[in-house]
Design a protein that fits this description.
8-stranded mixed beta sheet; alpha/beta; single chain; Rossmann fold
Length: about 270
């Protein structure tokens, strides 16, 4: 299993394809499996795509100490070093989008293009999930009932129309149970998210930026994508009508086409 030694820890990663380097950064409780084969295959030829697991996740090294989004961004920069990539096209979703923002701010020379999906800038006007939804998710997660936690997460992260089709449950369940993330690690990730705020600095990002957000996102409402696109010079906003938080899982082919066209247009 490929592992990259990064800042005193070890990160598991996978790479596929050949061509333009693309680094995919997952969100809170997400693993490399959460991208889904349909999205990864949809990215097509001509790209070398790397997915990885954050510290404490999957077969990356265990983590029991707090960390910040900025530290996770430095992890990503360290992974680029291990891959011997001077720069890459960076795609970050949800918490991974926060990591990608910090990566672009802390290591701007490493970014060829930036894609920020279903993420959050912090600051005035930005919105986290409704407190009632957070309480529901936390209760399910801490209940010890794995089925309840997964069903609650499924409903929260995808649109009502997607969830209503029972055929969509089995692939989600299989992905989430194949490599479960420890609850204490998810709590550390949540703590990092709560401290994230790039709102006053986004205007300094020069990389060509695509912002993607589903209009039915309940985890991080679409207003966040609008704020990010307004703050980053010349950023392009793509709102996916009727789509929930995990837009790349719900509409993998469309999402992959957006990323691919953005990467190859530069």
């Amino acid at each position: 299993m490929p592992q990259a030694a990064v800042d005193g820890t070890s990160l598991y990663y996978e790479r596929r394809g050949a061509g333009e380097p693309v680094l995919l950064i997952q969100g809170m409780s997400g693993t490399h499996l959460a991208w889904g084969e349909a999205f990864l295959a949809g990215l097509g030829d001509g790209l070398e795509v790397v997915t990885y697991n954050h510290r404490g996740v999957g077969t990356s090294a265990p983590q029991d100490q707090p960390f910040t989004i900025a530290q996770l961004a430095d992890d990503a920069a360290g992974l680029l070093d291990a891959l011997e990539w001077e720069s890459a096209h960076v795609v970050g979703i949800s918490m991974g989008g926060m990591v990608a923002q910090e990566l672009a701010l802390r290591h701007p020379q490493r970014i060829r293009t930036l894609t920020l999906g279903c993420t959050y800038p912090g600051g005035a006007g930005a919105q986290l999930a409704d407190p009632a939804l957070i309480q529901e998710l936390a209760g399910a997660l801490l209940s010890g009932d794995r089925e309840r936690a997964l069903r609650t997460g499924f409903a929260a992260n995808l649109s009502a129309a997607h969830v209503a089709d029972e055929a969509h449950w089995e692939p989600f369940q299989a992905m989430a149970t194949a490599l479960p993330v420890a609850v204490p690690v998810i709590m550390l990730q949540m703590q990092a998210v709560m401290g994230h705020d790039t709102s006053a600095r986004l205007g300094s990002i020069e990389a060509p930026t695509l912002v993607v957000h589903g209009t039915e996102d309940r985890m991080l409402p679409a207003v966040n994508g609008e704020l990010i696109a307004q703050a980053i010079p010349h950023a392009r906003l793509e709102l996916l009508e009727g789509v929930g938080h995990m837009f790349w899982w719900e509409q993998p082919e469309r999402s992959a086409a957006l990323v691919r066209s953005h990467v190859l247009a530069q």
